[in-house]
Amino acid sequence: MWKGVQLETKRVTLETQLAQTQIELDLYRKKAAELEHSLETERRDRRIERDDSQRRLRDDTGDLRRQHQQLVDSLERKLRLELMDEKLARTREVQEIKNYAVLEKQRLEMQMDGSGRETRNLKMELEATIAALERERNLNISLRDKISEQDLTSLGMESTTRALMARIEVLENQRNAQAQDHSSLQRKLQEVLEKYVMVEEKLRNEEIVRRRLHNQVQELKGNIRVFCRVRPTIQDEVESAAEIRFPDQDLEGKEIEVVGSPDKSALGKEHTKTHTFVFDKVFSPKHQNVDVFEEISQLVQSALDGYNVCIFCYGQTGSGKTYTMSASDGMIPLAVHQIYDTAKGLQEKGWTYTMEGNFVEVYNENINDLLGKVDEIDKKKHEIRHDPKECKTIITGVETALLDTPSKVDALLRRASQTRSVAATKANERSSRSHSVFILRLIGVNHITGEKSEGTLNLVDLAGSERLSHSQSTGERLKETQSINRSLSCLGDVIAALGSGKEGAHIPYRNSKLTYLLQYSLGGNSKCLMFVMVSPMMAHLSESLTSLKFATKVNNTTIGTAKKQVKI
């Protein structure tokens, strides 16, 4: 009886413990439900916050939105997986507890006598349940830490987004400022371009006026002018020099006085005659080639303006003709350099020039091409052809050189110098035995106004003008001297006919190849300059006076008004 009471008491105690265990289990379930609700609420809050962040960042930058979305999605998946794992673990543990409690209840009912051992087992299970709840609490703490880290990451992204927006705003302001500066510069550039067009137009108008005034000045000076130059003596000539004076050298420099040889009168008295000559300009022996070119540079400018210009040197052998024309600082190189410099300056006014050159010689009434092959000299025949309408002269079969740089002109002069016929006479060890003619054609086009100009510059180095009694030439040299003097005589006849003033008068250009070649550079459609070269030697006095008298005859000639070769 007593034993039954003890068993009943133990049974009641076990039922009480089982009820308490059931209560605790329900409490655990309630806590688990609350925790699940809390996690769900937290997840919903996080989702709402994430969506707000996504909406704010979506307008700012696509890259930040994708990174943030990926990070949130990754974290959400991770948290969901972890929560599901934990929920399953908790469910499994609760199910295990339930199963275990049922089994324990059955065992208690069946084996009341083994209640002590079962109680210990229940205690162990209870401790295991407490440990599981502690792990769940730690997991909740870990989840909260991760959520805090996510909040910090979201704040960092928001700060980065605000910084980027501020940078975008600064760049936008800078772009607007640059656009305003660009517009201002465009307006200023347009104003400068308009001023530039006005200045260019003014320069072109001034160039037209300059050409007209320049031509008027040249016409006032005369379309044919004569300059006289006396070469200096060399060392072994000083004692045998003639007396030549320059009375107005410090003034206009136009007079030259040559003191003749002493003559005896019929009464036996000696007297000396002084010959006075007046030209457009006289150069004494102290003048250099540069000084001479300064006086003729305006004629070179006329060739660029579209006129036919002829400059030739006349005088006896050894008077300095070739040195004046073809030396390194002679008239030909200096004229070409001036033309290049002037043409370059005219480019800004719309002018572009093409320069072509020929170099020929007239030898024994035959024309030789000094730029051609040496073995063709005196063999190849060349003809002179004129175009009366265009006032142009063409020589058939000669080489034409395009002279686009001054260096090409220097090379052309060297080539012609090596080819030119030079031989010895008693008058000079190296006497030029032919007339050399350098022909420079200047073709200008103004791409702005459409105006075209075609000018020709003829630079002529005439052969020596000494008489036969002075040169003492014989044989082949005699024939050369006769041919030279005949062509020079024809030149005088042409100039005299031009100066006769008779309208329609015959001009004997065809009497000589030299005058026929220079027909359009000697007539009314030209500007002409003759250098009379004088030797300072007493032995050459007679020839010098002859040259000066011929030059005076030319100086008294008027050939009319030159016409400019211009096309529109």
Q: What is the helix content? A: 55-70%
Q: What is the SS-derived class?
A: alpha+beta
How many strand units? Answer: 19
Biggest beta sheet summary: 10 strands, mixed
Mean pLDDT score, rounded? Answer: 79
| Alpha plus pi helix count | 12
* Broad shape: rod-shaped
The share of residues in extended strands comes to 15-25%
Rg for CA atoms: 59 Å
Spatial gap, N to C terminus: 153 Å
Low-confidence stretches: 213-222, 422-431, 561-568
Would you give an account of this structure?
With 568 residues, the chain is of the alpha+beta class. 56% of the residues lie in helices and 17% in strands. The protein has helices at residues 2-58, 62-110, 115-221, 289-304, 321-326, 331-346, 406-419, 468-471, 476-498, 513-517, 519-522, 541-555; strands at residues 224-230, 244-245, 255-259, 263-264, 270-271, 274-278, 281-283, 308-315, 351-363, 366-369, 384-387, 392-395, 401-402, 422-423, 431-432, 435-446, 452-461, 527-534, 566-567. The strands form five sheets. Strands 1, 7, 8, 9, 10, 13, 16, 17, 18 and 19 form a ten-stranded mixed beta sheet that branches. Strand 16 (435-446) and strand 17 (452-461) form a beta hairpin. Helix 1 (2-58) runs antiparallel to helix 2 and helix 4 (289-304) packs across helix 6 (331-346). The longest helix is centred in the first third of the chain and has 107 residues, at 115-221. It is rod-shaped.
Descriptive tags:
10-stranded mixed β-sheet; 568 residues
Topology:
Layout: H1 2-58, H2 62-110, H3 115-221, E1 224-230, E2 244-245, E3 255-259, E4 263-264, E5 270-271, E6 274-278, E7 281-283, H4 289-304, E8 308-315, H5 321-326, H6 331-346, E9 351-363, E10 366-369, E11 384-387, E12 392-395, E13 401-402, H7 406-419, E14 422-423, E15 431-432, E16 435-446, E17 452-461, H8 468-471, H9 476-498, H10 513-517, H11 519-522, E18 527-534, H12 541-555, E19 566-567
Parallel strand pairs: 1-7, 1-18, 8-17, 8-18
Antiparallel strand pairs: 2-3, 3-6, 4-5, 9-10, 9-13, 9-16, 11-12, 14-15, 16-17, 17-19
